[in-house]
Amino acid sequence: MGIVKASALLDDLIEKAGGCAVVDGGLATQLEKHGASINDPLWSALCLIKDPDLVKRVHLEYLEAGADILVTSSYQATIPGFLSRGLSIEEAESLLEKSVKLAVEARDKFWNVVKRNPTQSYNRALVAASIGSYGAYLADGSEYNGDYGPHVCLDKLKDFHRHRLQVLVDAGPDILAFETIPNKLEAQACVELLEEENVQIPSWICFSSVDGKNAPSGESFKDCLDVINRSDKVSAFGINCAPPHFIQTLIQELKELTAKAIIVYPNSGEIWDGISKRWLPSKCFDEEKFEQFAPI
């Protein structure tokens, strides 16, 4: 599939959805609601090993709720992470492939049912293969501050992401989703890697933000977008895992900085404590007021 045709797939979905397609919700949150214990360096990817059927169930629940895009359970799934658990490279690759397979199977099962009923207004969802940042693999909170230290260079970041990207692309998702990117350097690594590997499916790159104005590293989004705007391989830019009260202003600012589609999927306003490995309660608003921060 050529990149022009592939990008059209995402554009067509957005058009069919009325100009605003819906991404699914937090996978880990929903897994935990079903009793999954994911307090582990592998996070939600642990369920790929222990309970893949639950992952598929959660995908189906989000489709039933109206999701137009499913994000796979591979955010924290890395080759080094699996190897550290005693798995072989082949087993690690198989688990990455499974993350895509589970989402595709859920999407196809759901679509085969709803397409027979013309009264139901669902879109055929796309599957986005999640690629978490280098900081997510480190599990030290650095995806929320962008401080990778002086020894992490562009080539090291590309080498870290390359094998996982290759396996995920071969597994057949519709989109690649680089998530919680904290700095311009890693964004540049992602863009160069897409070019070097000649990836022929669309991708998006999402940053987090801790102040609602800049990337976690302190770099401006304008600087970060300079490298992304030059790439035909990246179809959308956005924000994930940031407090919802930042989102409307960020959308308005990003629209001035890029012609690419804008994607946002905030958290619930909690703050991640990388030292104690837990979420701190939001001080921004009461839970019952959460919906007021959805951009119109």
Task: Describe this entry's structure for a reader.
With 296 residues, the chain is α/β, with parallel strands linked by helices. It contains eleven helices and eight strands. Strand 3 (175-181), helix 9 and strand 4 (203-207) form a beta-alpha-beta unit. Helix 4 (52-64) runs parallel beside helix 6 (89-114). It starts with a helix and ends in a 16-residue tail after the last strand.
- Low-pLDDT runs of 5+ residues are 1-5
**Alpha carbon gyration radius:** 18 Å
Structural class: alpha/beta
Mean pLDDT: 89
What distance lies between the first and last C-alpha atoms, to the nearest angstrom? 34 Å
Task: Give the helix tally.
Answer: 11
Helix content: 40-55%
Strand order of the largest sheet: 1-2-3-4-5-6
Total strands: the figure is 8
The SSE order reads HHHHEHHEHHEHEHEHEEE
Specify the oligomeric state: single chain
Q: What's the overall geometry?
A: globular
* Biggest sheet descriptor: 6 strands, parallel
User: Beta-strand percentage?
Assistant: 5-15%
